[in-house]
Specification:
Length: 454
């Protein structure tokens, strides 16, 4: 009777439809159950090994002799036909639209690693004829090339490669100056070589020794100057063109070098630095009175030490900067360490390494650490004062990242093919300045990112 009732109540076609509806609801519920519980289950992802080494604490330093900076007169430019770098395999320079901003307040640009860069340098000594001969390592016959294929990578942020086209567009009608010793000249050559990939600059000024220069990029009205002022304060230097001294430097610790102060307000961007020259034998003056000296045993003067003069000079320089009316951006660059091993520049020291090192693998020399400690302490004091006065004063601490590149110096290849006539020839090594192209090119990556995101 019930079946008859159902047959009457639900004819065959309707009953079939009802069963289909029940099955549809069942399968939908089953699918929902599977998806829901799968989303709650733990996800398994591959474990990626970090490409960066763990930080190693540097051992306590031992006292060592620090080399004097070499001075070589600048010869006319030389060009060698060296092939361009291989096709870009990694880290293609981004366009302005692609370039993602880096939070410069959170990024520690100076804590990182040198990582492989198969694309190689942006320029070569074939594409840039502005490299000084004693830093043109390829022209001078350096046989290895691995030192060209590394780039600096901060651990906490992405550092884009320097984009010369974007830089030139951002710097229309601006004036830059790099002020300091021959490392500043080294640095400015790197910057000019990178920018010359977009436009060749015109050299519009140079002094008699080619230590001070100014270039102009005509399409952008950008001027780029290098001002040679190794002490930043006024100094009488008694050296020949080979850097051989006939007397101690006479250093006036209460007078800034007018070579840069007279032009100071003309520049929108400044990178200022000093360092190694303060290790030279010197007599210190203040108010036209001798205060004492450093390393002058033949004179009956009080030995004050280079650290006395360095701190006093930096205080004076930084006070001038932070109390000025400068409305642009000023960088203070820390000194860069040398890598002489098995002696010093005057006693057969060499730098024959061909790859970067890891933190702690090579100890920073004691006197170098003293220089850096003074720099960081004095900048720290000046920075707070600059902030109060509205002066944009920033630190670029290249000391640590440069310490990891003992492979980046000319070594014996500061001279043209030094072993061409004698494979065992004894030649002086340059383990202070940097090959171009070379590690110094990465400095510009950091500088540009700080400018863009500052």
């Amino acid at each position: 009777m019930r079946m008859d009732y159902l047959k009457q109540k639900f004819p065959f076609n309707h009953r079939n439809l009802f069963l289909k509806l029940l099955l549809t609801i069942f399968f939908i519920g089953l699918a929902f159950r599977i998806l829901f519980f799968h989303s709650l289950s733990p996800q398994i992802s591959p474990v990626l090994e970090s490409p960066f080494p763990e930080k190693v604490t540097l051992p306590e330093p031992q006292t060592s002799t620090v080399p004097e900076e070499e001075h070589v007169p600048e010869p006319p430019p030389v060009i060698e036909h060296v092939s361009e770098p291989p096709p870009v395999l990694e880290h293609v320079p981004q366009t302005e639209d692609q370039l993602s901003p880096t939070d410069s307040e959170k990024c520690d640009y100076f804590n990182g690693d040198w990582i492989p860069n198969p694309s190689g340098p942006v320029y070569t000594n074939d594409s840039c004829d502005l490299i000084e001969s004693h830093q043109n390592c390829l022209k001078n016959g350096r046989p290895d090339r691995d030192f060209l294929y590394w780039r600096w990578a901060p651990r906490e942020c992405d550092l884009p490669q320097f984009d010369p086209k974007r830089f030139l567009n951002l710097m229309r009608n601006k004036a830059w100056a790099l002020i300091g010793d021959s490392i500043s000249r080294n640095h400015v050559q790197s910057l000019v070589c990178i920018l010359s990939k977009v436009e060749k600059p015109a050299l519009v000024y140079h002094d008699e020794e080619y230590k001070c220069k100014r270039w102009n990029f005509p399409s952008y009205n950008l001027s780029l100057s290098v001002i040679w002022s190794p002490f930043l304060v006024e100094a009488a230097i008694f050296e020949d063109i080979n850097g051989v001294s006939s007397s101690e430097v006479e250093l006036h610790l209460d007078r800034l070098d007018s070579k840069w102060t007279d032009q100071y307000l003309d520049f929108d961007y400044i990178i200022i630095s000093t360092g190694k020259w303060f290790l030279k034998s010197a007599i210190y003056y203040e108010n036209e009175t001798i205060l004492g000296c450093h390393s002058c045993p033949k004179r009956n003067l009080t030995e004050l030490g280079f650290n006395f003069a360095y701190r006093k000079a930096l205080k004076f320089v930084m006070n001038f900067i932070v109390t000025s009316n400068h409305k642009g951006l000023i960088f203070f660059r820390t000194f860069t360490p040398d890598h002489f091993e098995n002696g010093e520049w005057f006693s057969g020291g060499t730098c024959n390494r061909t790859a970067p090192i890891k933190e702690g693998e090579m100890e920073m020399k004691y006197l170098n650490k003293m220089l850096r400690e003074i720099e960081l302490e004095e900048f720290g004091k000046a920075a707070s004062e600059a902030s109060k006065n509205g002066v944009n004063f920033k630190l670029v601490d290249f000391a640590s990242l440069s310490q990891l590149r003992p492979d980046g110096h000319p070594g014996p290849y500061r001279q043209f093919h030094p072993f061409e006539k004698d494979q065992n020839a004894k030649v002086q090594n340059d383990c202070l300045h940097w090959c171009l192209p070379g590690p110094i090119d990465s400095w510009n990556d950091i500088i540009m990112d700080m400018v863009v995101n500052g």
